[in-house]
Amino acid sequence: MDTKKLENLVTKTGVGLLFFLTFVGIIFVFDVAFNLDLFSDSMKTAAGVFLGIVCVFVVCSVLVSLMLNVSRLANSIEALANKQIDNKASEE
Predict the structure, then answer these.
(1) Radius of gyration of the chain (CA)
(2) In the chain, which end has fewer C-beta atoms inside a 10 angstrom radius, N or C?
(3) How confident is the model over 42-71, as pLDDT tens digits?
(4) Helix, strand or coil for residue 72?
């Protein structure tokens, strides 16, 4: 699989999960702050576990995206260095 496509997929997934996590987090803050009791205790526990899992996915997607971008950056630097070496060799 192409690393650029994989990086785009992972980044889009991470951003989508982050928006979801932010939205649900805001709902839970209002639930706790204003004591609205929108969710039962067992549902809050299940949602907390689910949000923890989503948070792990977000962190993993950020790390994978970072690793793929560092790899692409290293390949670009290598190509640039090879191009400069070739230019110096052709000048001599």
Answers:
(1) 22
(2) C
(3) 988 998 899 999 999 999 999 999 998 898
(4) helix
What is the amino acid identity at position 31?
A: D
Which residues lie below 8 Å from residue 7, measured CB to CB, with a gap of 6+? 64, 65, 68, 69, 72
Backbone angles phi, psi at 71, to 5 degrees: -65, -45
Residue 85 burial class via C-beta count within 10 angstroms: exposed 0-12, middle 13-18, buried 19 and up: exposed
SS3 (DSSP) at 36: coil
Number of domains within the chain? 1
Which residues form the domain of 75? 3-91
Other C-beta atoms closer than 10 Å to the C-beta of 8 total: 13
